[in-house]
DNA sequence: ACGATGACAATGC
DNA sequence: TGCATTGCCATCG
């Protein structure tokens, strides 16, 4: 480790800030890449966040709580990383359907996260159960 | 030095 | 919703 914080390069500093931001995401919560970047004081560096996570070191880092801004998992559906992430999130009680988080889009800001609007829209009940949609039992 | 790549995002149609 | 475009920036060949 740098004997002196002064020896730290810009890249290293960014990395450190990003890791801290990711660790700050509470269990059962999710955040977007761009969001993490902003919280880390690096607005516009979503891609950098992705790169840092892709490195995959840092044991114990809750990388699975980081999603795309639209609430979808960043990995291609079906890939090992995808399955892994979905599983971890579900283990924390996060609802996921069709590859995207339900009931809690990656909060754009901490405020939004705290405001936590109850539910965007329960959408009433399914139009239907129209004949033929019955599921097997 | 240069172009391609990538766990992305915001904007426009 | 979906697709294209542009911005970003560290790495890599």
UniProtKB/TrEMBL annotation:
Superkingdom of source: Bacteria
UniProt GO BP: DNA repair; methylation
Bias type Low complexity, positions: 125-137
GO molecular function: methyltransferase activity
CDD domains per UniProt: ATase
InterPro entries: ATL_DNA_repair, MethylDNA_cys_MeTrfase_DNA-bd, MethylDNA_cys_MeTrfase_DNAb, WH-like_DNA-bd_sf
UniProt keyword terms in alphabetical order: DNA damage, Methyltransferase, Transferase
Domain Methylated-DNA-[protein]-cysteine S-methyltransferase DNA binding: 16-94
Region: Disordered, residue numbers: 113-137
Keyword Transferase annotated: yes
Entries under Pfam families matching the protein: DNA_binding_1
Protein name from the UniProt record: Cysteine methyltransferase
Source organism of this protein record: Arenimonas terrae
């Amino acid at each position: 480790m740098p004997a002196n914080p002064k020896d730290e390069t810009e890249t290293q500093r960014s990395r450190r800030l990003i890791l801290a931001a990711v660790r700050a995401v509470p269990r059962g919560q999710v955040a977007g890449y761009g969001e993490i970047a902003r919280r880390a004081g690096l607005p516009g560096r979503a891609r950098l966040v992705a790169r840092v996570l892709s490195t995959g070191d840092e044991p114990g880092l809750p990388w699975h709580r980081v999603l795309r801004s639209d609430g979808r998992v960043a990995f291609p559906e079906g890939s090992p990383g995808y399955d892994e992430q979905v599983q971890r999130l579900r283990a924390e009680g996060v609802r996921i359907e069709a590859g995207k988080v339900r009931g809690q889009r990656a909060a754009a800001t901490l405020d939004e996260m705290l405001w936590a609007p109850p539910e965007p829209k329960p959408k009433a009940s399914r139009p239907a159960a129209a004949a033929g949609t019955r599921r097997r039992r």
